[in-house]
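Lecture notes, continued. The same structure-token format from the folding unit now serves as the input rather than the output. Read the line below as a description of shape only.
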């Protein structure tokens, strides 16, 4: 069997998706800063504002994700993955050299560059994975995004718990894992992940849904397994090693799907001599039926008809069709989505970047539990919202942005609870922020593809996630950093510290108000896109009916 035939077969398609899941399971390293931020702060004698700006540097790396977006239409998936793997290896590798004491602490601005490289590496990985998989499974965008973004959410807990189990949460070892593991997994994914034709029949689509269900179940088992480990208290060395071994087995278990398909194919090989293989060209089937097909049919006619088509091509794009980034940015819907996304992910990043200091301010000595809780519950937010939103689109044409609105209002309540600093509030706050942040990512990604199409999706996605560095700068670097410094006292080494509920109280209140603004924007987008989702629903229903009749 040739490589092209293998990649286009169900076995190759699902082997590629499993590889994509593995990449996402190790690409959430941007959310792990709290696990080693205190080591950087003490080694470099930083104030909290300086530390926060250092964390902003890693998020600024995502601003250069536009390069990955541009490359997604010009370079192959393996090349994009290789770039991300190498960049992450260098960025986190240098941080490991500093924290481990192998080299002396580098100047502040140089450390900012290497943190920026580490942050940018994930944009190449995520662009390669999301763009390729959404195109490969374009009829199941919600579940695909939920699963992939869910594993990104779990990756923080995976790294944190493995490091805690095997290396006693040592910051330098943790950074070594961040440098080596993603690079190794990206090399594996390079072999298997390719862009191939999507499902063409209703039966294939139903088969995909079943397989996604299996991967969802495996992911939930992993999440619960990690959660039980986190809340079950201190563990012995042997128990921790067994935990890590079982976790690796669970992470490898999605391979059961391509193995099952391979066995199924082998059994049928004796009775079926001719295998129906899809063509090599990727057909960008639109979500909405109609105009594009009509254009292709009339082009074959006389010269005067061709002229009519050319005039037709120049009309303004409507929501639901393929947009270039400039066409998308000229629409009000893009900016509503952009700003509401900023309100959700910007405030969420502020909490994730400052969990270490928030925990210390409230008297906790070990903050790794909060990092893991945010990660695990973020997974549940991502994976559940992806599948649930897809279900309600198919069943009742419910606009996907309504779920963003629900997450924004819940997040606002969570910040109020954190501001009250009641006993256990940081546990509850970590869970609420994790869930809502996960929902925000899992919903916004397919929403953008539905509003502006898949043709230029790589670039549109990376422009949209400019909100990550922008939100990190506004809410973590400026808001949290400045307000913390105003409350903190200087330490002997030149840094500063703050202890007490007052350290972040005003920060949480401001972020709660921000989420309420985001809620209003999401409701507005829901209203504006109601007709689009009604058309998507009608289009899918018409396809299903025609398939049944034929």
């Amino acid at each position: 069997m040739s490589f092209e035939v293998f990649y286009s077969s169900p076995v190759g398609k699902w082997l590629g998706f499993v590889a994509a899941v593995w990449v996402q399971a190790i690409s959430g390293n941007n959310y792990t800063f709290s696990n080693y931020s205190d080591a950087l702060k003490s080694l470099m004698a930083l104030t909290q504002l300086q530390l926060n700006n250092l964390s902003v540097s890693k998020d600024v790396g995502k601003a250069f994700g536009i390069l990955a977006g541009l490359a997604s239409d010009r370079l192959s998936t393996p090349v994009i993955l290789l770039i991300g793997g190498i960049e992450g290896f260098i960025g986190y590798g240098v941080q490991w050299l500093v924290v481990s004491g192998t080299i002396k602490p580098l100047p502040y601005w140089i450390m900012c560059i290497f943190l920026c490289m580490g942050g940018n590496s994930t944009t190449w990985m995520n662009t390669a994975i999301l763009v390729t998989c959404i195109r490969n499974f374009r009829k199941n965008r919600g579940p695909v995004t939920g699963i992939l973004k869910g594993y990104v959410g779990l990756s923080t807990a995976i790294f944190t718990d493995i490091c805690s189990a095997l290396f006693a949460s040592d910051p330098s070892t943790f950074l070594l894992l961040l440098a080596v593991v993603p690079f190794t997994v990206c090399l594996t994914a390079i072999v298997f992940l390719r862009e191939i034709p999507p499902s063409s029949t209703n039966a294939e689509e139903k088969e995909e849904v079943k397989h996604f269900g299996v991967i969802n179940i495996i992911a939930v088992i992993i999440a619960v397994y990690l959660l039980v480990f986190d809340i079950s208290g201190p563990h012995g060395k042997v128990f921790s090693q067994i935990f890590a071994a079982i976790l690796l087995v669970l992470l490898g278990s999605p391979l059961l799907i391509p193995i099952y398909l391979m066995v199924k194919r082998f059994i049928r090989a004796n009775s079926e001599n001719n295998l129906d293989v899809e063509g090599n060209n990727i057909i960008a089937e639109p979500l909405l039926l109609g105009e594009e097909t009509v254009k292709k049919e009339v082009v074959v006619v006389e010269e005067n008809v061709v002229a009519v088509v050319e005039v037709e091509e120049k009309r303004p794009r409507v929501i639901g069709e393929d947009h270039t980034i400039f066409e998308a940015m000229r629409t009000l819907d893009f900016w509503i989505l952009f700003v509401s996304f900023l309100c959700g992910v910007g405030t969420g990043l502020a909490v994730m970047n400052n969990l270490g200091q928030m925990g210390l301010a409230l008297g906790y000595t070990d903050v790794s539990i909060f990092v893991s809780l945010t990660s695990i519950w973020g997974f549940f937010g991502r994976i559940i919202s992806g599948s649930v939103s897809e279900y309600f689109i198919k069943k009742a044409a419910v606009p996907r942005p309504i779920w963003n609105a629900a997450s924004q209002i819940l997040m606002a309540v969570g910040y109020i609870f954190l501001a009250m600093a009641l006993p256990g509030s940081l546990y509850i706050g970590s869970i609420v922020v994790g869930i809502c942040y996960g929902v925000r990512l899992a919903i916004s990604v397919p929403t953008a593809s539905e509003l502006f199409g898949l043709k230029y999706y790589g670039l549109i996605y990376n422009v949209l996630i400019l909100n990550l560095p922008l939100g990190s700068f506004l809410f973590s670097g400026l808001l949290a950093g400045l307000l913390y410094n105003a409350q903190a006292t200087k330490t002997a080494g030149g840094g500063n510290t703050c202890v007490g509920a007052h350290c972040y109280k005003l920060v949480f209140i401001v972020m709660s108000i921000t989420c309420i603004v985001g809620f209003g924007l999401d409701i507005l987008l829901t209203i504006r896109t109601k007709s689009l989702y009604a058309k998507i629903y009608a289009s899918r229903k018409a396809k299903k009916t025609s398939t049944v009749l034929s």
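Point for the exam: Residues 1 and 458 are 31 Å apart (CA to CA).
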